[in-house]
Amino acid sequence: MSRTEGARLFREAWIAGVRRHFPGEPKPGYVTPWEETPEWERIAAGAVYEQVKQFLEVSEGQAGRLSREQKGRFVATCWTAQMYRHFEDPKPGYVADWPDLPGWQQETDADIFEEIVKDAD
Question: Rounded distance, CA 1 to CA 5, Å?
Fold first, then answer.
């Protein structure tokens, strides 16, 4: 899968997770379709997809055995690094540590990891 396809898989997994876990009606930006997703966000999604994919490769697939929390934390940490890459002074919510993320976002990040595992099989 190309990086662009991986980025799109990431975005689609994010949207599905938001729809599944977000309490109430999510902000429109949370569920913006791929075609309307800003370029920086597409690049960030592709980078995180690649990081998870590489993590699976170097662990010979065993990273798929991590707990849901560990999977979500990995995605969240990779995403935070992308926020620092793309923004000089990112909003605090963009770079919040795992315990400070809302539960719906933690669950969505874990879902993303698991979707990338499925794709790698």
Answer: 6
Tokens found for residue 104: 């719906």
**Which range marks the domain in which residue 15 is found?**
3-120
For the whole prediction, is pTM greater than 0.85?
A: yes
Neighbour-count burial of 25, counting CB atoms closer than 10 A to its CB (0-12 exposed, 13-18 middle, 19+ buried): exposed
Counting residues of the chain whose pLDDT is more than 90, the rounded percentage is 94
Q: The tokens of 40 are what?
A: 């920086």
One-letter amino acid of 112: I
pLDDT tens digits, residue range 52-105? Answer: 999 999 999 999 999 999 999 999 999 999 999 999 999 999 999 999 999 999
* Tokens found for residue 89: 């002074």
Number of domains composing the chain: 1
State in Å, rounded, how far the first CA of the chain is from the last one: 12
Alpha-carbon distance 110 to 75, whole Å?
A: 7
> Does residue 106 contact residue 112 with C-beta atoms inside 8 Å?
no
